Amino acid sequence: MSKVGKRLSLITEKHESVVRDYLGRVNDPVFPKAKAAELAKEWGYDYWDGDRRVNYGGYHFISGYWTPLAQKIIEEFHLTSQSSVLDVGCGKGFLLRELLELLPGIRVIGLDISQYALDRSPPEVRGQLILGNATSLPFGRNEFDLVVSLNTLHNLYTFELDVALTELERVARQKYLVVESYRTEVEKANLLYWQVTCESFFTPDEWLWWFKRSGYSGDFEFIYFR
Description:
Number of helices: 10
Number of domains: 1
């Protein structure tokens, strides 16, 4: 088993600033959790821009919203305008759009399984986003200076995790991923209530076991539903 990188805290503050009605999502009379999950896993309109009781309720680019995270990533991984970054699970490419704004000339590539999201990405990055899956990245070894994957790998089944983690390790010299986790029974219940696409529910120790087993040596961050 390989040595895993550092535990970071780049996105936690933003995640914890959101107020969530956990029981409301489970018990909603129109979109109960099971129905919301079925719609969300189509990765189309309902997931991104449909009713808030299904998922985002309208995922639109807001200038500056992703800037603090993009700036933290630039500083943490010493990125420059000559760097290259791959975002696995890029969605509509908003983070990449902010990186490009902060570092003109940087090479940014995004990959996502949602054609709906890619078609609605900002024009500045649309040509650099491709349809694909985290388990099969169409890039060479160490092709990128950094690969990021935010809130994506927990949507995979366990038999896919090994492959996806190995792929992240392969394509970049530096790695940073964020996954959802839980430390208490309350956080576990809240995660189960809230998440409509998560398939892999693990404690931090279990995630670290997966990282080591797969040879993932990059940095990571866990977010929790308090």
